[in-house]
Design goal:
- By secondary structure, the chain is α+β, with helices and mostly antiparallel strands.
- The chain contains one helix and two strands, in the order αββ.
- Helices cover 25% and strands 8% of the residues.
- Strands 1-2 form a two-stranded antiparallel sheet.
- Strand 1 and strand 2 form a beta hairpin.
- It is elongated and about 55 Å long.
């Protein structure tokens, strides 16, 4: 079975969109403007969705961590 590769410009666009999503999460603030310190903790191909239009979206923030959370998860 021959594997197909993703052209470099498309792969680069997916990485760019993913990094923009991470940046947006890291810049999140609460209603008072205080940083939430969100960390995704599971950036993997399974958590990146690509739309039919070609935009990539970072998903599954269920394992994300914010410094303001009362409970913590194990590594």
């Amino acid at each position: 079975e021959r594997r197909k590769t993703v052209p470099l410009p498309i792969a680069a666009a997916v990485v760019r969109d993913t990094l923009e999503g991470l940046h947006a999460a890291h810049e999140m603030v609460d209603e008072h403007g205080a940083p939430l310190h969100v960390v995704h903790r599971d950036v993997s191909p399974h958590n990146i969705l690509v739309s039919r239009q070609g935009a990539a979206y970072l998903t599954d923030f269920g394992v994300a961590r914010a410094s303001s959370r009362l409970s913590t998860t194990r590594s």
